[in-house]
Amino acid sequence: MHRNKYIFLFLCIGILFSSCVKSYQPDINSNETNNYVVLGQLTNQEGFQEVSISKAASVGAPKVLPVKNCTVYILDDKGNTYMMNEYSSGIYHVYMSQSDLQAGTSYQLDIITKDGTEIISSFDKMPEVPDVDSVYFLRKDIPTNNPGYPTKGIQFYIDYNGSSSGSPYVKWDLEETWEYHTEYPIEAYYDGSTHYLTPYDYTRHICWKTTVVDDIFTLSTQNLGGNKYKMFPLHFVDNHSSRLAYGYSLLIKQLSLSQAAYIYWDKVRINHNSNGGLYQQQPLTIKGNLVNKTRPNEEVLGYFNASSVKTKRIFVQNVAGLDMDFSNFCGGPMKLEIGWQEGGTPEHPIYLVVVDNSYMWVDEFCVDCLLQKGINVKPNFWPN
């Protein structure tokens, strides 16, 4: 009886919300969802330089729409031309030597699509970049809506010292790597028959994962004395994931920008980092440095810039005063029930662990760190 009352209550609530909430479809010109999107960042590091070319998708069905079979060139102001090759769908690259990538040189991107549309960028001059100064972190608690229960973690900072030759416009790209562990090694498993491992299999017990930090960090020292800045805040890492549990590494890429490239990326930063939903704040109109020569009235989204880059890596382990509070995605251990053997197959075995001198079963996340999209080969930069 009580169960029926609750079902009736939930139905009433559902009807109430469905009658009060009306979806909003933004009025976007269909032509604006078919613009070319070009992103490329040339650096002074010898190796493959990359450019991506795609079409803008609709707001209702966001996805990558790569533009294939383009003819793509990088040109410099010394008369050199470098032809790029498509090595994956809509992604073009070319290998450039150190002598081709010099600060003070200006570079331009020229694209001709399969249908003959030509897109070019303005020339962008590669500035000098200073060495990366100090990178450090402080223990910090971020207030939440629940008084007395802040989000605990560490806040990273960087000092910038551009001296007299470094660019007053800078952008930082961050890449984080961390070590994580499963709850158990593989002790035994059932895939139609039971296998007991001696010794235990630890090959999927420890993994490392690398991701790009999604935030955008830009700085202008144009109006500051000495082309310096102390304690610029980078990203915050909380204690609600395994990132700080066993070892954490942050790779900082410091990129010099021209003034025009800085203005573009700073607007992208404001758009990206603004609080509020899609319809709570009007997005900035961000004009890049690319034009459609064939159809000048069609806007081209994105930017092509040339940057010098310097890097520095910092390692973090055993942060003082920080207790970890995260889930390792491990379900179990659970008692073996009658008929449990029916579920194990070679493709999806049932994993068994010894708890209190008896076998219990756990899900695969408890024993296989590869399921969290990491690798079980220690990175060559990882400390012993």
Explain what this protein looks like in three dimensions:
With 384 residues, the chain is mostly beta strands. The chain has a domain at 30-128 and 258-308: Immunoglobulins (Immunoglobulin-like). 9% of the residues lie in helices and 41% in strands. It has helices spanning 2-20, 259-273; strands at 36-43, 47-55, 65-66, 71-76, 81-88, 91-96, 106-112, 118-121, 124-125, 135-142, 151-161, 169-181, 186-190, 194-201, 206-212, 217-220, 228-238, 248-256, 290-292, 301-307, 309-316, 350-355, 358-362. Strands 1, 2, 3, 4, 5, 6, 7, 8, 9, 19 and 20 form an 11-stranded mixed beta sheet that branches. Strands 12, 15, 16, 18 and 21 form a 5-stranded antiparallel beta sheet that branches. A hairpin with a 4-residue loop joins strand 4 and strand 5 (81-88). It is globular.
Mean pLDDT metric: 87
Helix content: under 10%
Count of helical regions: 2
Just give the CATH class of the domain at 30-128 and 258-308.
Answer: Mainly Beta
Structural class: mainly beta
Instruction: Round the Cα radius of gyration to an integer and report it.
Output: 27 Å
Distance between the termini: 63 Å
Q: Which percent range describes the beta-strand content?
A: 35-45%
> What are the segments in which pLDDT stays under 50 over at least 5 consecutive residues?
1-30, 276-282
Which topology of the domain at 30-128 and 258-308 does CATH recognise? Immunoglobulin-like
Report the CATH architecture of the domain at 30-128 and 258-308: Sandwich
**DSSP, total strands:** 23
- Rough shape? globular
Please outline the major beta sheet: 11 strands, mixed
CATH-defined superfamily of the domain at 30-128 and 258-308: Immunoglobulins
